[in-house]
Design goal:
The chain is built from 4 helices and 7 strands, in the order ββββαααβαββ. With 160 residues, it is of the alpha+beta class. The chain has a single domain, classed as 60s Ribosomal Protein L30, Chain: A. Strands 4-1-7-5-6 form a 5-stranded mixed β-sheet. A two-stranded antiparallel ribbon has the order 2-3. The protein is globular and about 45 Å long. The chain starts with 5 loop residues before the first strand and ends with a strand. The model has no long low-confidence stretch (mean pLDDT 95). The structure holds magnesium ion. Magnesium ion binds next to strand 1 and helix 1.
């Protein structure tokens, strides 16, 4: 039964460090500081991929692309997103909408918001007006170098 709507939730967290480009949502938002991780550490894409995989009932990102596998060292997460979307499409589902919240102190996300929506829309095959990206700052409540992302995805059958 593929006619029902499926909701998926994805979450990721990476630390900001100097000396790496900042990759978020498939874009490079800064050159002199970025997220630490085995792959390019694109926390927004990682959370979005997990939300979509979760909704489709598929294995999660860490199972499909283990961070112990040298093949994924420095991996471009847009490639992981495309691979994940191929698997999702084979289940007869498509992405209807994505909604993301970032907890991030720097850089300011507002100037990049439209580009991030566009980039996610292209990667997950959904119109940009069905992708939302919201950002909050820690306001002294936590570690300003920790970036956290939560994404909710809605999927439906490709027959609908
Ligand atoms: Mg990650």
């Amino acid at each position: 039964m593929n006619d029902d709507a499926r909701i998926g939730l994805g979450y990721d967290r990476h630390r900001l460090v100097p000396g790496r480009p900042l990759r978020l949502g498939g874009l490079t938002l800064a050159q002199d500081f970025g997220l630490l991780g085995h792959s390019d550490a694109d926390a927004l894409l990682h959370a979005a991929i997990d939300a979509v995989l979760g909704a489709a009932g598929l294995d999660d990102l860490g199972t499909l692309f283990p961070d112990t596998d040298p093949r994924y060292a420095g991996a471009d997460s847009t490639v992981l997103a495309r691979t994940a979307m191929d698997l999702v499409q084979r289940t007869g589902l498509r992405v209807v909408s994505l909604d993301a919240v970032l907890l991030i102190d720097r850089p300011k996300i507002a100037p990049h918001r439209a580009a991030l929506r566009q980039s996610l829309a292209a990667l997950f095959g959904v119109p940009a007006d069905r992708v939302n990206v919201k950002a909050k700052t820690t306001e002294g409540s936590g570690d300003p170098d920790l970036v956290e992302v939560t994404v909710v995805a809605l999927l439906r059958s490709t027959r609908l």
